[in-house]
TrEMBL record, chain C:
Stated name of the protein: ABC transporter permease
Cellular component terms (Gene Ontology): plasma membrane
Pfam family, one: BPD_transp_2
Superkingdom as given in the UniProt entry: Bacteria
Cell compartments where the protein resides: Cell membrane
GO annotation (BP), single: amino acid transport
Keyword presence, Transport: yes
Length: 402, 332, 290, 257
């Protein structure tokens, strides 16, 4: 008898519970929630990896964002800015779960982040369906502003096309007529080298061979021997993080630097890996959209502020975080801090235009992708340490969107 | 009404009312737990009932998931089509792999399943044109049954709940059936089973295929749920985490893997919002369970229940405790 | 022909690097029957400790090579005494799981101490040059790794075959009760073997660090590779581990050279084939049932 | 039918590496015979059993069962054909109950093992449970039916070891030291049970306890150094000088030491 009574009470209890609160049934049957979202605060959901292989990139993006919001005192007009961080790990499914939490539970007004392109693709439908403005601050997969374009997704970082394409023509004229390509075997590596190949061969260059070591490959000796014996004047490489450290070091150790110039994307010799490479990176030419060595007033101020706050040099990810924060702030300022209407927010983002530490940036309203300068940089030895130097600027590079 | 039936009805009722109580986020979380619970239940047939510890179960999850994703994109998002195609693909894959794996046992079985799953992983990772490579496949249309669209999370939840109940019920029938008892016998002493006249290799293969097939179903549901699949769900770490779910929950019991899945998903979701050290926390909890509660959450629960229920005489406890611990589901 | 020769040198150097990384795991498994899934983590600790030492000692690689393996061995000793010793009665599967949980814990501990940036250790000054073989420059350090691998293999072989300790160890392999009867403290054997296993893991970490670098999740990658070597070689056989390391070195290097698309596939393919055709590994002991 | 040969072992040899364990052993077993196999440790008795059951493949020679060559037939198939063994060391499903151990045997016998979706309980399988309970009762294990096997005494486990073999209704039963390690009372009990086995059942029994084996067997085979030394009437064997020298004498010496 007791149990039957308990069951009846359970039913009553559940029925009462379901009558109040915002249950799933209610929120899915209602169309728009209107102003119930934020009161006096603007909630920004930040989805970045705090653990796993990309943790250090996530950390720098966070630092950059916080640096900018510090500078405006975490306020836009009368509204307070609140960031809600979630760890995307390196797992798209976990990231999607976290994105749902930010959107459904925390009711963020704007979403930003994602280092991994797979994560960005994974949450793409969710933000599109729920009309959450999503500013991509790192993930560079081409399709995000092409076939997977959404009204609510804007990208302030880069596309793999921009990275690869920018060096193609320049390399043909200044490096050599024959090229070997070595890139990490994952979607991004393939896209970057594809874009480079296109531009390089269009200029008249010849690709002698290609090799795609797996992501996280530990020993490049076999590939290097193959490359060494190929008849190419130079090598275009795409590697990042620990792969970049190992590849550049081993490239030097196996004596390839003497007869084949190494060129590639900026991550090959970026701020965060150069120190670990020793002097191996010296002489490398790469293309990227920002570098520590850019000599503009905006960049000087950014570097100074960053070094003062964190006592270390900013990395390119710090810059990405900084710019993403600034874009969000500038867009919302034009709306007086009212982030309740996602359509107005994305409209405001599309009109943002300012001079960033990386040079002037604005958005392509067609593709939703950032239009920015690309820099060709060379790694040199300065006072016993490697430093990059900008040797050429390619202005206003626009992703073709196709 | 016995104790067990009562608990069952209460649990099912709670699940049925979930959409009325939980907010959307928690409802999605419950959906995800149910899908991963199906995955863990499938592995449990191998690990818990047949005694074959596999470190490659994500392979079948992946086969099912990619099968669903490709079919939904290229042919039709019809739910039954994707579900049964995934089931069939996973059954075929597990039958082929199983033929080799069931010939070895113990550590060798662990390593051989790992080897096969890593081969499938590298295939998925490499075949960019079919599987989207490292970026995975996204924008997969939500499942349809006739003209009914399951993009609404509440409908989808009920669909998953129904499937979960069917699979849970089906599996508990199987493990208590004469066939299931053969599997338990193999776990306990394969030599003896052979000398009783059982073709144990065939039974192990059957268990492998059931596990693989249901793993594929779980993968298919996961794809439908998230509209997305990527190679990280086929990687060995996925196999490792589902194994942890089974072991923490309580292997060789029906409810254990479900509790394990819930525990890990909730832990990972909640804890990682506060600290980046969630791996350490899972690691420590895992170690504690291995040392103190080798029978998982289920074993812990039974211990607690026994120490609470004062009606039991002391002698009955001491006599029955180990009984319950070592023989969780076998007797019922 | 030069390119084949060069690739052969690459194979051997990579293979012996694998041997240096793996032999500790093989030793512990062979003697104690404990599959230490925290082996990769001990390797990682070795690499990070040697990083800290080189940074604070003005890039003194040799100092790191002396201290870091000892530090790891002490860690390993602590793990054995606090975690494993009280749980020997739980059985092998539980111990495997225990070390797996430990790997998770160590993962976050190292991340908390050393951060998640990519780090590396510069080559020791004296070994940083190159030598030309088969018309190609080879880093001296790679050749040194070959020498170290060979010496280590020889040393382990000598200890196992020619010394009293080796005799005890071999006895322990076949019959634990017997060595108890011989009046040997089996507890001590376990502790010492675990200590040595930890030392070798740390040693591997220091030797590999200048080549492989330091980065988050490096231990899991190493662990998987080490398990593959262990399986292919035959469980717990030092000679088997040596042969397997070289085999993988050769197969993987030449696969990268000839069909690079398959290089991820081939190692696991090789492992599967060995497990199917010769489940005891290339040089594993034949286990007779009954 | 009395003189019908059920099992024929034809020049079976077995070696592991360089070690020769069985040398050209030949033996014909007639239906209903009770054969005792004795011999010193290491004579190859258990290996001989393992070859008969298919747990080991002989290096040479063949085995015929009811006229059919079964040398390459898998062990479980031989069980199903009627050749059933018990083990020298208890080899039970230790974590399961006595009843569950027995049910596994019986469900195989009644071809119920491939039923998937019907719970195995007393209501749904009344005959199966009835038979199991009957056997348990016959063997005096009623109070132990729902105990986990490993909680039972050694003697009781030994009893179950034999029970599991007999429950299949074998045609040839191979008993590997059925009374090893048992007390005198337990041994007597087992011997009594073995005496009551159906008369048409063929039994091969390895036994160290000579009292037991001479009591049960109507034919004795002495294995020595991998070959058959003597094959004959129990009384003949008992009085054979060679047997007393190489086997019995040693055993007794050991027993008195």
């Amino acid at each position: 008898m007791k149990r039957k009574l308990f069951l009846i009470m359970l039913v009553v209890f559940l029925a009462v519970l379901s009558a109040c609160g915002n249950s799933a049934i209610q929120s899915t049957s209602k169309k728009e929630e209107g102003g119930s979202k934020s009161g006096g605060t603007i909630k920004i959901g930040v989805l970045l990896p705090d653990s796993g292989v990309y943790a250090s990139l996530g950390k720098h993006l966070h630092k950059g964002m916080e640096l900018y919001f510090d500078s405006i005192d975490w306020k836009i007009g009368s509204k307070k800015i609140e960031i809600i961080k979630e760890d995307s790990e390196a797992d798209p499914q976990v990231a999607l779960r976290k994105a749902r939490k930010l959107i459904d539970q925390d009711k963020v007004d704007i979403l930003t982040g994602t280092v991994s392109t797979a994560v960005a693709y994974a949450i793409r439908d969710e933000v599109d369906k729920k009309k959450i403005p999503f500013l991509v601050s790192h993930a560079g997969g081409n399709d995000l502003t092409r076939s997977k374009r959404s009204d609510y997704i804007w990208r302030s970082s880069f596309s793999s096309w921009q990275i690869g394409n920018s060096l193609g023509e320049w390399a043909f004229h200044n490096v050599g007529k024959t090229m070997y390509i070595a890139a990490a075997d994952y979607a991004f590596g393939r896209e970057v080298s594809e874009a480079f190949k296109e531009a390089y061969t269009a200029a008249g260059g010849k690709i002698v061979g290609e090799v795609y070591p797996p992501l996280g490959n530990n020993d490049y000796s076999s590939y290097l021997t193959t490359i060494k014996n190929a008849k190419a004047e130079a090598v275009y490489a795409f590697f990042a993080g620990s792969d970049a450290v190992r590849f550049v070091q081993q490239y030097d150790q196996f004596g390839l630097k003497e007869d084949k110039k190494l060129i590639g994307s900026g991550w090959l010799v970026s701020e965060d890996v150069r120190k670990s490479q020793g002097n191996a990176g010296v002489g490398t030419i790469s293309s990227i959209f920002w570098d520590y060595s850019i000599k503009t007033e905006e960049n000087r101020q950014f570097k100074e502020a960053f070094e003062k706050k964190y006592n270390e040099r900013p990395t390119i990810e710090a810059l990405e975080g900084y710019d993403a924060a600034k874009i969000i702030a500038e867009a919302l300022t034009t709306l007086d801090g009212d982030a309740s209407d996602p359509d107005k927010v994305v409209e405001a983002i599309s009109n943002v235009e300012f001079i960033s530490p990386r040079g002037p940036i604005k958005f392509d309203k067609e593709t939703h992708h950032v239009i920015q300068n690309m820099y060709i940089i060379e790694t040199k030895l300065v006072n016993g340490q490697t430093e990059n130097e900008v040797i050429e600027i390619i202005e206003e590079v626009r992703d073709p969107g196709k | 009404m016995n104790k067990k039936g009562f608990a069952l009805i209460a649990a099912v009722m709670l699940l049925i009312f979930s959409p009325f109580i939980f907010s959307l986020f928690y409802l999605n979380l419950v959906t995800e737990i149910l899908i991963l619970a199906i995955f863990a239940l499938s592995l449990n047939i191998l690990v818990g009932y047949t005694g074959l510890v596999s470190l490659g179960h994500a392979a079948f999850f992946g086969v099912g998931a990619y099968m669903s994703a490709i079919l939904a994109r290229e042919i039709s998002p019809n739910f039954f089509l994707t579900l049964f195609a995934s089931l069939a693909a996973a059954i075929i894959a597990s039958a082929i792999i199983g033929i080799f794996c069931v010939k070895v046992s113990g550590f060798y079985f662990l390593m051989l399943t790992l080897a096969f799953s890593q081969m499938i992983y590298s295939f998925v990772h490499q075949s960019t044109t079919i599987t989207g490579g490292s970026n995975g496949l996204s924008g997969i249309p939500s499942p349809l049954i006739g003209s009914l669209d399951f993009s609404n999370p509440v409908y989808f939840y009920y669909l998953i709940l129904l499937l979960f109940i069917l699979i849970y019920g089906g599996l508990s029938l199987i493990v208590h059936s004469p066939f299931g008892q053969v599997l338990i016998g193999i776990r306990e002493n394969e030599t003896r089973l052979k000398s009783m006249g059982y073709h144990t290799t065939l039974y192990k293969l059957a268990a492998f295929v059931i596990a693989g097939g249901l793993g594929g179903v779980a993968g298919s549901l996961y794809t439908s749920f998230n509209s997305f699949i990527s190679p990280s769900d086929v990687y060995w770490t996925m196999s490792g985490s589902v194994l942890i779910m089974v072991l923490i929950g309580g292997s060789g019991t029906m409810i254990g893997p479900v509790l394990g899945a819930a525990f890990i998903v909730i832990l990972e979701t909640i804890v990682s919002s506060y600290t980046t050290m969630w791996m350490m926390i899972i690691g420590i909890i895992f170690i504690l369970f291995v040392v103190f509660f080798p029978k998982g959450i289920v074993g812990l629960g039974k211990l607690l229940l026994q120490s609470f229920s004062k009606s039991n005489k002391l002698s009955a406890i001491s006599g029955k405790k180990s009984n319950a611990l070592y023989n969780n589901d076998v007797k019922n | 022909m030069d390119i084949i020769g060069a690739q052969l040198v690459n194979s051997i150097s990579y293979g012996l690097l694998l041997f240096v990384i793996t032999c500790g795991l093989s030793l512990v498994f062979g003697i104690l029957g404990v599959l230490n899934l925290a082996h990769g983590s001990l390797y990682m600790i070795g690499a990070y400790v040697s990083y800290s030492i080189t940074v604070h000692s003005g890039q003194n690689f040799w100092l790191a090579l002396i201290i870091a393996p000892l530090a790891v061995a002490v860690c390993s000793l602590i793990i054995e005494m606090i975690l494993l010793r009280p749980t020997y009665q739980l059985g092998h599967l539980s111990q495997v799981l225990l070390t797996f949980g430990l790997a998770y814990v160590i993962h976050d501990m190292t991340a908390a101490i050393w951060g998640s940036d990519v780090l590396s250790i510069p080559l020791p000054q004296s070994l940083s040059g190159t030598v030309t073989l088969f018309n190609q420059a080879f880093p001296v350090y790679r050749l040194a790794v070959i020498a170290i691998g060979l010496i280590l293999a020889g040393l382990l072989w000598f200890i196992q075959e020619k010394t009293r300790w080796g005799a005890i160890i071999r006895a322990g392999l076949s019959d634990k009760e017997m060595i108890c009867a011989l009046g040997v403290n089996i507890q001590l054997v376990f502790t010492v073997v675990f200590f040595i296993g930890g030392y070798l893991a740390g040693f591997g970490g220091v030797i590999a660090a200048p080549i492989l670098g330091l980065y988050p999740s490096m231990e899991f990658q190493t662990l998987i590779l080490a398990l593959v070597v262990l399986v292919i070689g035959g469980l717990g056989s030092i000679a088997g581990t040596f042969v397997a390391s070289l085999t993988i070195g050769i197969v993987e290097t030449f696969c990268r050279f000839l069909v690079p698309e398959l290089s991820l596939f081939v190692v696991f393919g090789l492992m599967a084939v060995v497990l199917i055709v010769k489940p005891n590994g290339l040089l594993g002991r034949q286990v007779v049932k009954h | 039918m009395e003189n019908h040969v059920i099992l024929k072992i034809d020049r079976v040899g077995m070696h592991f590496g360089g070690l020769e364990i069985l040398k050209d052993v030949s033996l014909e077993v007639k239906k209903g015979e009770r054969i005792g196999i004795i011999g010193p440790n290491g004579a190859g008795k258990t290996t001989f059993f393992n070859i008969l059951t298919g747990d080991l493949k002989p290096s040479s020679g063949s085995i015929y069962y009811k006229g059919e060559n079964i040398t390459n037939v898998a062990n479980f198939k031989r069980t199903n054909a009627g050749i059933v063994r018990t083990f020298q060391r208890n080899n039970l499903l230790n974590e399961l109950t006595v009843l569950d151990n027995l049910l596994l045997v019986l469900q195989r016998k009644h071809h119920l093992q491939n039923v998937w979706f019907k719970k195995r309980n007393e209501k749904k399988y009344p005959k199966l449970f009835e038979e199991a309970n009957q056997l348990i009762k016959t063997w005096g294990l009623e109070k132990r039916a729902n105990e986990i096997v490993k909680k039972l005494s050694y003697g009781e486990q030994r009893q179950i070891e034999i029970l599991l073999g007999i429950a299949i209704n074998p045609q040839v039963l191979l008993l590997d030291e059925p009374t090893a390690g048992m007390s005198q009372a337990e041994t007597d009990y087992i011997v009594d049970l073995l005496h009551n086995l159906p008369k048409d059942l063929t039994v091969l029994i390895i036994e160290h306890d000579l009292e037991v084996v001479f009591g049960l067997a109507d034919r004795m085979v002495v294995l020595y150094d991998g070959g058959i030394l003597i094959d004959g009437d129990p009384n003949e064997v008992r009085n054979d000088r060679r047997v007393n020298e190489i086997y019995i004498g040693k055993e007794e010496a050991a027993a008195h030491a």
